[in-house]
């Protein structure tokens, strides 16, 4: 079921801190901690049979949640041991919940950790501020089955980077909203099953922080569905520049556009038009010059780059920019250190290698890098990968997890370009087209019957994928 946009918000640890502080005005922190502990315990009871449990508690509120889980599991009859990785501050809320633990405390759990059925990682959560030290790393390395509270210790909540070491959790229970680090790689690989639980914090508190990041799921966009009054021009026209030598890319983009529901697809061929005309009776292959094509005011959406040589891009892209059409730029447009070339495009879709070629190394994390590139170029940036990041020049970011490695096939990027162009031609904004396009691309992969689809197989599923994105 489509979610509300506010449910898709991803909060950085510092934004979550703001929310926690706001929530604490009406609900005491100790109560929030109890609620968090309850939430984690319930998820454990749903999934695991009673077994021996070791709860590793850190010095902060994450540790506090751990003490509550220990108490509740022990109450349910499970054999529970606690190790305080660091002592909580005296008279703090954490110290109070720690004081309520009357069961076994093990000061050195190195010999136990391999033997227990389950390890609860309550060492660090949102407060992680440096790499895990060797002692904690060596201990965690021995854990076999881990449930993480909030986030596996060592995964940075904002960037998904691993701070020294992190355990591979089977289950992570987080609170209120997920964090970017749950979905960004490499963090995502450490989280296991992710469950987001309500712990009594009102959604209204979201207004106390400026949410700029969302999970890329239906709810972030509104896609037009079939209307009785539709005609081909109302569904939108996509124009694609076809290379003179590498002709497959434009054809794949064009097929994807038609299958996603474009009303009309033109190919403007830079070399011989024949190979394009022969490939499908549904394409219109331009016979006239680019200038004449651009005079048609209905042709506002152009794909430029797939299958184009650098010299072809250098000739065509400035003309498209000058004509003020909306451009989805990919592949051939990504030339060494040439970010200036991209100004005037609407959406760019580089993979990591192309991104680095244009913008240089990713100094921080993918989200910051994509945001910066979006501000620099004025384009919506789709930084492609297993954790595709979509960034808008106004600072909005979406992180996509709705994709599988089925998409890692030749021509898959050309397919994505055609999908995004079609959505843009249907009247969606650049941001919505990019977000929805990335999701539909992933969905088309999931809908493939066989596990090793070609780009043409993906195209077959685009109509259904679009319908699913509109639900
Ligand atoms: N604040 C609230 O209202 C709530 C917070 N909750 C929990 O509280 C957590 C956040 O609590 P905190 O802000 O106390 O943060 P943490 O519990 O994550 O830990 C913070 C403490 O650990 C230290 N630390 C961080 N990284 C370290 C490292 N690598 N090595 C050694 N020490 C390190 C910090 O200096 C600080 O003293 C959340 O992850 C969540 O689990 C929940 O209890 C729900 C309510
Ligand atoms: K944790």
Automatic annotation (TrEMBL):
InterPro entries the UniProt entry points to: Carbohydrate_kinase_pred_CS, CARKD, Nnr, Ribokinase-like, YjeF_N_dom, YjeF_N_dom_sf
Residues given in the record as AMP binding sites: 384-388, 413
Gene Ontology terms describing biological process: metabolite repair; nicotinamide nucleotide metabolic process
Co-factor binding details: Binds 1 potassium ion per subunit.
A Pfam family recorded for this sequence: Carb_kinase
Keywords: ATP-binding, Isomerase, Lyase, Metal-binding, Multifunctional enzyme, NAD, NADP, Nucleotide-binding, Potassium
Stretches assigned to coiled coil: none
Record domain YjeF C-terminal: where: 215-469
Residues engaged in binding (6S)-NADPHX: 61-65, 125-131, 150, 249, 307, 351, 414
PROSITE patterns per UniProt: YJEF_C_2 (PS01050), YJEF_C_3 (PS51383), YJEF_N (PS51385)
Catalytic activity, EC: 4.2.1.136, 5.1.99.6
tRNA processing in keyword set: no
Gene Ontology molecular functions: ADP-dependent NAD(P)H-hydrate dehydratase activity; ATP binding; metal ion binding; NAD(P)HX epimerase activity
Reaction equation(s) it catalyzes: (6R)-NADPHX = (6S)-NADPHX; (6R)-NADHX = (6S)-NADHX; (6S)-NADPHX + ADP = AMP + phosphate + NADPH + H(+); (6S)-NADHX + ADP = AMP + phosphate + NADH + H(+)
Domain YjeF N-terminal stretches: 16-207
Residues annotated to bind K(+): 62, 121, 153
Cofactor: Mg(2+); K(+)
Keyword Aminoacyl-tRNA synthetase: no
HAMAP family recorded: NADHX_dehydratase, NADHX_epimerase
PANTHER family: ATP-DEPENDENT (S)-NAD(P)H-HYDRATE DEHYDRATASE (PTHR12592:SF0), ATP-DEPENDENT (S)-NAD(P)H-HYDRATE DEHYDRATASE FAMILY MEMBER (PTHR12592)
Role played: Catalyzes the dehydration of the S-form of NAD(P)HX at the expense of ADP, which is converted to AMP. Together with NAD(P)HX epimerase, which catalyzes the epimerization of the S- and R-forms, the enzyme allows the repair of both epimers of NAD(P)HX, a damaged form of NAD(P)H that is a result of enzymatic or heat-dependent hydration. Bifunctional enzyme that catalyzes the epimerization of the S- and R-forms of NAD(P)HX and the dehydration of the S-form of NAD(P)HX at the expense of ADP, which is converted to AMP. This allows the repair of both epimers of NAD(P)HX, a damaged form of NAD(P)H that is a result of enzymatic or heat-dependent hydration.
Subunit structure: Homotetramer.
Record-stated family: In the C-terminal section; belongs to the NnrD/CARKD family. Belongs to the NnrE/AIBP family.
The name this protein goes by in its record: Bifunctional NAD(P)H-hydrate repair enzyme
Species for this entry: Commensalibacter communis
Gene it is expressed from: nnrE
């Amino acid at each position: 079921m489509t979610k509300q946009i506010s449910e898709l918000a991803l909060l950085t640890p510092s934004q979550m801190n703001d929310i926690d502080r706001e929530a604490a005005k009406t609900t005491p922190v100790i109560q929030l901690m109890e609620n968090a502990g309850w939430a984690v315990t319930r998820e454990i009871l749903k999934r695991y049979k009673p077994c021996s449990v070791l709860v590793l508690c850190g010095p902060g509120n994450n540790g506090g949640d751990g003490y509550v889980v220990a108490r509740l599991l022990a109450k349910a009859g499970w054999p529970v041991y606690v190790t305080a990785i660091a002592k909580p501050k005296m008279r703090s809320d954490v110290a109070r919940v720690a004081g309520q633990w009357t069961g076994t405390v093990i000061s050195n759990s190195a010999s136990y950790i391999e033997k227990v059925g389950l390890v609860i990682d309550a060492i660090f959560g949102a407060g992680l501020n440096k790499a895990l030290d060797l002692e904690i790393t060596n201990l965690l390395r021995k854990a076999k089955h881990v449930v993480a509270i909030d986030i596996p210790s060592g995964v940075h909540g904002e960037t998904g980077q691993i701070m020294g070491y992190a355990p591979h959790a089977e289950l992570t229970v987080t609170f209120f909203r997920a964090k970017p680090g749950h979905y960004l790689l490499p963090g995502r690989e450490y989280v296991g099953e992710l469950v987001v639980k309500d712990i009594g914090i009102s959604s209204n508190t979201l207004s106390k922080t400026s949410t700029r990041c969302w999970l890329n799921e239906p709810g972030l966009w509104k896609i037009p569905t079939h209307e009785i009054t539709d005609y081909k021009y109302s569904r939108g026209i996509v124009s694609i520049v076809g290379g003179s030598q590498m002709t497959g890319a434009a054809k794949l983009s064009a097929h994807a556009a038609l299958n996603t529901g474009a009303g009309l697809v033109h190919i403007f061929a830079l070399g011989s038009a024949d190979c394009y005309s022969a490939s499908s009776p549904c394409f219109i292959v331009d016979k006239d010059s680019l200038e004449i094509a651009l005079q048609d005011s209905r042709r506002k959406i152009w794909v430029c780059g797939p299958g184009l040589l650098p010299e072809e891009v250098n000739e065509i892209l400035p003309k498209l920019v000058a004509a003020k059409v909306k451009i989805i730029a990919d592949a051939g447009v990504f030339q060494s250190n040439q970010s200036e070339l991209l100004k005037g495009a609407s959406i760019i879709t580089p993979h990591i290698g192309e991104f680095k070629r244009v913008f240089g190394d990713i100094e921080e994390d993918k989200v910051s890098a994509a945001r910066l590139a979006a501000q620099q170029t004025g384009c919506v940036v789709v930084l492609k990968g297993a954790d595709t990041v979509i960034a808008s020049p106004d600072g909005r970011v979406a992180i996509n997890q709705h994709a599988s490695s089925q998409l890692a096939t030749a021509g898959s990027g050309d397919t994505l370009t055609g999908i995004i162009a079609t959505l843009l031609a249907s009247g969606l904004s650049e941001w919505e087209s990019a977000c929805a396009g990335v999701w539909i691309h992933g969905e088309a992969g999931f809908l493939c019957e066989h596990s090793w689809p070609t780009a043409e197989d993906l195209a077959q599923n685009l109509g259904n994928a679009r319908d699913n994105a509109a639900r």
